[in-house]
Amino acid sequence: MVVLFFIPILILVLVATVPTWPYNKNWGYYPTGGVGAILVLTIVLLLLNRI
Predict the structure, then answer these.
(1) What predicted TM-score, i.e. pTM, was given to this entire model?
(2) Domain that includes residue 40, residue range
(3) 2-20, pLDDT tens digit by residue?
């Protein structure tokens, strides 16, 4: 149940870290890639019933 609450939060963080927003253009793609990897890992583990 907690994972289903966690996935939308990860998606919102992923959208917030996209480097097209004015406040994070200097960050590059590193935060987006990290959050995206965590999101993909969470979804895969959820589909495999590991969490």
Answers:
(1) 0.66
(2) 2-47
(3) 777 888 888 888 787 777 7
Give the residue ranges of DSSP H helices in the chain: 2-16, 30-47
Which of 16, 14, 19, 21 lies closest to 29 in space, CA to CA?
19
Count of structural domains within the chain: 1
* pLDDT tens per residue, range 26-49: 777 777 788 888 888 888 888 888
Those residues with Cβ within 8 angstroms of residue 30's Cβ, 6 or more apart along the chain or in another chain: none
Asked whether the beta carbons of 25 and 43 are under 8 A apart, the reply is no
Cα gap 45→27, rounded to integer Å: 28
